[in-house]
Specification:
heterodimer; A: about 85% helix; about 0% strand; B: mainly alpha; Rna Polymerase Sigma Factor, Chain: A; Arc Repressor Mutant, subunit A; binds zinc ion
């Protein structure tokens, strides 16, 4: 008699879905066939031993995972915080430069306003003096640039070109970095 | 009161990441044992298991409710193991002490024989090709069903059944050749 059907029954037995009738058939065959008896015993051993103890993860397992996660989150948060800080710094710089420019242009108005809201005269005139000096500085700077411009027109164009190239490459780079970051987030 | 997995997951995604500890608690044994039986180098098992949970955390938003969470997590663990095995073939470090010697009233010799037998079976399991080994690990060690295995491995049930048949025969053949040599 071929033994193959009984091998299939043994598989069903291991899967746990053998019927009573099939099991009786299998048992009967095993009693008569030593090859299948050996096979059956080996399978029984295998199943028994495999079912034995599952390994217990170390006690601190969750804590360690959560610690790692926390570090990860912390890192992300820090990165975000840094970026926000940088943006804040740059925008406040720009704002104060703009404010100084406006104050220089309208220095008479600023002075009058200060007098109007009863700021001590000394202090107000100090501020006025400062604004005037900044105005003079702007004047000198602009004439200097104008003067340079007339001499080194070509140089200036070269400079502008260089600066714009550097600027553009920076923008490209940061775009690339952003893309890579996005991708790495996706693959993770 | 125990929250169902899906509630925990949704709250984790919304920012209550501390709740992930509960998910780790529920599934660590499954994940740990899959990895333990797939990776030869036992020193790395703990790190890999932690890495797998971090991967699970990062992919939480992509969890598909059609799967049981255990199935989905087992899938991530299995893929991670495959990646690791592909990257570097771990040098075979023999399985140390599959301990827990809680064998009833056996004589010392019997205990020794049983321990020996278990080690042989686990060694041979480790020597099976990965795609056969994973089936034995998932079904016999971790008690997954055929349907779950077919989801974990992304293969149709017929292929899984066929492969399991072959995996068991391979394991049996290796062990019965040893039996002839008097080891088992
Ligand atoms: Zn037979």
């Amino acid at each position: 008699m071929s033994c193959e059907p009984f091998e299939i029954l043994m598989m069903k037995h291991m899967d746990g879905d053998i019927t009573d009738i099939e099991y009786k058939k299998l048992k009967k065959h095993i009693d008569e066939c030593s090859t299948c008896k050996n096979e059956f015993d080996t399978f029984e051993n295998i199943c028994y031993e495999l079912k034995e103890p599952l390994i217990d993860p170390p006690l601190a397992f969750e804590t360690e995972v959560m610690k790692k996660l926390e570090n990860l989150n912390l890192y992300n948060k820090k990165l975000k915080e840094k970026r926000i800080l940088a943006a804040y710094f740059i925008s406040s710089m720009l704002f104060s430069i703009l404010a100084i420019c406006i104050a220089v242009i309208y220095k008479e108005h600023v002075y009058n306003f200060m007098i109007y809201i009863n700021i001590p005269l000394g202090f107000a005139s100090n501020i006025y003096g400062l604004l005037e000096r900044i105005a003079v500085f702007f004047d000198i700077a602009s004439t200097f640039i104008f003067y340079l411009n007339s001499i080194f027109v070509d140089m200036l164009y070269l400079l502008i070109g260089l600066v714009s190239i550097i600027f553009m490459s920076k923008i490209y780079e940061s775009a690339q970095v952003a893309k890579v970051r996005k991708n790495s987030k996706k693959t993770v | 009161m125990e929250l169902p997995d899906i509630v925990l997951i949704e709250r984790c995604i919304k920012g209550e990441s501390h709740l992930f500890a509960e998910i780790v608690e529920r599934y660590k044994k499954l994940i740990y044992n899959i990895i333990y039986n797939m990776i030869n180098n036992k020193d790395e098992v703990n790190d890999i298991a932690q890495e797998v949970f971090i991967r699970i955390y990062k992919s939480l938003s992509r969890y598909n409710k059609e799967y049981k969470f255990s199935t989905w997590a087992a899938k991530i663990a299995t893929n991670y193991c495959y990646d690791m095995l592909r990257k570097k073939k771990f040098e075979c470090i023999p399985i140390e002490e599959v301990s827990n010697v809680q064998m009833d009233n056996d004589s010392p010799e019997d205990q020794y024989i049983k321990k020996e037998r278990r080690e042989r079976i686990n060694d041979e399991l480790m020597n099976l090709p990965e795609k056969y080994r994973i089936l034995i690990v998932l079904f016999h060690k971790n008690g997954l069903s055929y349907e779950e295995m077919s989801q974990v491995l992304d293969e149709p049930m017929s292929i899984i059944k066929n492969r399991m048949y072959r995996a068991r025969l391979m394991l049996k053949d290796k062990l019965s050749s040893e039996r002839k040599e008097g080891i088992l």
